[in-house]
Amino acid sequence: MTDGAGLSDRELRTWRTFLGVATVLNQQVEQQLKDTAGLSHPQYEVLARLSNAPDGELRMTELAGIALTSKSGLSYQVAQLEKAGLVQRRPCATDERGIVAVLTEAGWAKLRESAPNHLALVRSAFVESLSANEFAALTAAVDALGTHLGLTGETVTALRVQS
Amino acid sequence: MTDGAGLSDRELRTWRTFLGVATVLNQQVEQQLKDTAGLSHPQYEVLARLSNAPDGELRMTELAGIALTSKSGLSYQVAQLEKAGLVQRRPCATDERGIVAVLTEAGWAKLRESAPNHLALVRSAFVESLSANEFAALTAAVDALGTHLGLTGETVTALRVQS
DNA sequence: GAATGATTGTTCAAATTCGAACGACCGGCT
DNA sequence: AGCCGGTCGTTCGAATTTGAACAATCATTC
């Protein structure tokens, strides 16, 4: 049974569930980060991305691309993180226009402190809701979607919290 | 290879891809709705949910629950839609506190006009990125996730645009 | 080496989001 | 009838997001 656009009920239902699941997971992650670390999800994302980069530093534009946020949005969040002392800005050596954001020692510490709780939540709410087969199938599906949407490997690279 | 929380690289990568895919899909949908219909995604959501309800009307709280938004967020969006003439508010007959939001004729028209494009985008960016098997597996996975996250059938029910 | 078009990052206004506080009302109880 | 904990929807302020505009710098071309 399809409607005008040829989308079946089942397809539409999957789409809606997909959106709903993403929304609720985001809400839960947001909530937990706020409660246990005083960070928003975007802020955690910035810290995590930086921690994954060589020397814990990245150009603003690279960071914006990877974190899937707009340039102005990133400016704002990095300003917040700088106020909190978790990130520092310094001029880029090779490009007079550029700014590199660097994790401070406090930034590393915050990440080491908050990552375990965060990852445990991801595990319990996301990974462990699925059987091994389901999880593998989900991986294949989102990989295919990511490819079609032009998500780069960079965007998606696993984040390793160094200690 | 796992980190402190016991989340493997592969699991983390799947999580990141899942978030990235959801983000990009949302951005594309948002963009298209804005361009072709002058609606935000939340606004479209409200119209679609109403269209799916008997008589095109729902109590505010029901609508907020289904649309996965906060009460105050819904108040704001319904106010915008009312300004645009797509939705009307009227008091609830059986509960003096209650407000029911109703689709106006213009609201029905807007939805009939914008749904085909929207659904075509969902089809091309979401459904058609996957093989039939992948799509079925994704459906099973998000259903399982939705169940574990407590998403009700209501929240997720397929939306039929009536004509 | 000057000119030109693109890129970098910030700033601004406008729109949107959330949670807390609020007044109004419901329903059950006495 | 009167009380009382709970629910309904709105409003408020604060935080955040977005795109457009901007000055500064780059890089390519002439």
TrEMBL record, chains A, B:
Molecular function via GO: DNA-binding transcription factor activity
Domain called HTH marR-type: residue spans: 11-147
InterPro entries linked: HTH_MarR-typ, MarR/SlyA-like, WH-like_DNA-bd_sf, WH_DNA-bd_sf
GO biological process, one term: response to stress
Gene3D superfamilies: Winged helix-like DNA-binding domain superfamily/Winged helix DNA-binding domain
SMART domains recorded: HTH_MARR
Protein name: MarR family transcriptional regulator
